[in-house]
Structure formats: C-alpha cells, structure tokens
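Key result, reporting period 2: structure in, sequence out.
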C-alpha cells in the first residue's frame, strides 16, 4: 500500500497566489473500487481530520484506491470558520462548482472532477462550535432509496431525514451523477474528543466494507428520524450549562444542569418527553435563546 500526496491547485486569490488543496490517494496496488472521503468543507469542522489520520495508522487489508480530501476548504480551515473570508460562500451549497466562479466554486469544481472517478463518497462533518453531535447520517428523504444499502452497512446509530432539499450539496450533486454518497456528522468541529475518534474510525471502516475496499460488509441497524420529529431545545435562561454528555445518543429527558446567577442556584434541564439526544451544547456559558440540544420527540 502506498499513500501518494497530491495538491490540487486552484487559481486564484486577490494577491495572485493559488489555493492549494492537499489530498491523498491511498493505493492498495490491488484491484478494487475507487472511493472518496471528503472532510472539512466547513473550516470550523476539523475534528474529522484526526479521525482520518488515526484511521490511516491502522494497517488494513485494503483493495482498490481511496481518494481522501482531509481539508476540502483550506481557506475556511485556516481561519477556523465555517466559510472562507474571501467570498463567504458555504462550500456545501456550491457543488458541483464552477470553472469561472468565485474561489469556493472553483475549489468545488476542481475537487468534483477528481471525485468523479469514485463509485462512492463519504462526506464528513462535525458539530458547529460548542455543539457535540452523536454520530448521525444526514440525507434528503427522497434520496433514501438511492443509498439504502449504504445506510444499512454504515455503523451509525441515527439517520436524519430532511424533508426539504438543500441546494447544491456535495452529496446531492454526486447522487445526481449516480455516485453513491452520504453525509455523516460526528463529534464537535473544534474539539478532539477521543471516544469519538474510535467511533469515527468504525464508521469509515464500515463504509469501506460496503464499498468493497475492505472485506466483509456488516449490517447495522440505524434509527431513521424525520426532521419534524426532532425537538430543538433553546436555553430558556442564561447561565452555565453542564451537559449530560454520558447520555448523548441515548434516550432520556435529562439534558444537563444549569447554574444561574446571582443566586448561584443549580437546576436540572429536562425535556417534556424522552428522546435520543442527537446534539448537545458543550460550551458551558449559554445565553437565553441559544441552541442547547437537538433531541428526538419519541
Ligand atoms: Zn459541516
């Protein structure tokens, strides 16, 4: 097995310098499928990079090739923000890109041409700043039938099904070209959380067993969740939130405790009904109205 370092050069920034997008081709030197893995379309979601690095340390009996873009959006990554400061475009609304577009669209165009060689692509995301996501696949519901076999083999406990389409996503554009693809969210973008590294490695492992780059695909049971069956919990009071991290992903009505001032009181935050916690605020200080959790309404 050899790992080839490549650079995709995209022109150009206002000072004339190009954007250099690093990517890697993991070549097993054995016959097999070509598969893509994309991470960090959003620059504040760099946790997946660690997962990919740890995955590559394990010696797998790989077949075929894997094309990995650990930092799909270096302009956003360099400033640790969701989008690039040059054009403020959300990369995951710019696919398949434009040859003569603004810089983010040009980056998409270049990456997409390379991903076109793949039979299947995994698009990795993480929770936004201070939001920790339990592993979850995300999909536009009418596309479910296109990737059901992939979902069945993917080691994720939840599949969130969106009723409304998002325009020009990477996964949507790949599916339009009959390239199987799925988005998986896990962990928190800016925090390196060790037990989520293991979960991320298992997800990549299950994905590559499905694609045929590894042997022995396994069946996993995931819970499909409609977006409208999800409760968005906003903080009703400001204070310091202590999240119930142990139960992230589990079924509960207990989200955590809130310490309030000036009385220095501590109160349990509960939801009206039990549900699986999908995302949880781990940022401590929270202001009234900020997102505290996403939890299913069971
Ligand atoms: Zn993202």
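The corresponding designed sequence is given below.
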């Amino acid at each position: 097995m050899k790992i080839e370092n490549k650079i995709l050069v995209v022109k150009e920034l206002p000072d004339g310098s190009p954007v250099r997008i690093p990517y890697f081709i993991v070549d097993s030197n054995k016959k097999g499928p070509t598969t893509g893995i994309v991470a960090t379309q959003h620059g504040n979601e760099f946790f997946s990079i660690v997962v990919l690095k740890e995955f590559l340390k394990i010696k797998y009996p790989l077949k075929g090739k894997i094309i990995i873009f650990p930092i799909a959006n270096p302009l956003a990554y360099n400033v640790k923000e969701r989008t690039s400061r040059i054009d403020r475009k959300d990369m995951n609304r710019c696919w398949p890109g434009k040859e003569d577009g603004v810089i983010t669209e040009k980056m998409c165009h270049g990456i997409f041409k390379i991903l076109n060689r793949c039979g299947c692509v995994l698009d990795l995301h993480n929770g936004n700043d201070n939001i920790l996501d339990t592993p979850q696949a995300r999909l536009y519901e009418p596309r479910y039938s296109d990737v059901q076999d992939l979902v069945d083999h993917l080691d994720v406990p939840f599949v969130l099904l969106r009723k409304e389409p998002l325009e020009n996503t990477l996964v949507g554009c790949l599916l339009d070209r009959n390239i199987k693809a799925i988005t998986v969210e896990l962990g928190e973008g800016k925090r390196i959380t060790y037990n989520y590294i293991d979960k991320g490695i298992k997800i990549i492992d299950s994905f590559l067993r499905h694609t045929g780059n590894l042997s022995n695909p396994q069946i996993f049971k995931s819970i499909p969740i409609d977006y409208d069956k999800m409760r968005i919990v906003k903080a009703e009071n400001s204070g310091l939130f202590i999240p119930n991290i142990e139960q992230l992903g589990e079924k509960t009505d207990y989200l955590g405790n809130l310490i309030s001032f000036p009385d220095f009181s501590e109160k349990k935050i509960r939801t009206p009904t039990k549900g699986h916690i999908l995302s949880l605020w781990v940022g401590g200080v929270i202001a009234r109205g900020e997102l505290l959790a996403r939890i299913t309404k069971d």
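The first strand starts at residue 2 and ends at 10. The chain has two domains: 2-221, 229-296. This case is discussed further under Risks and Mitigation.
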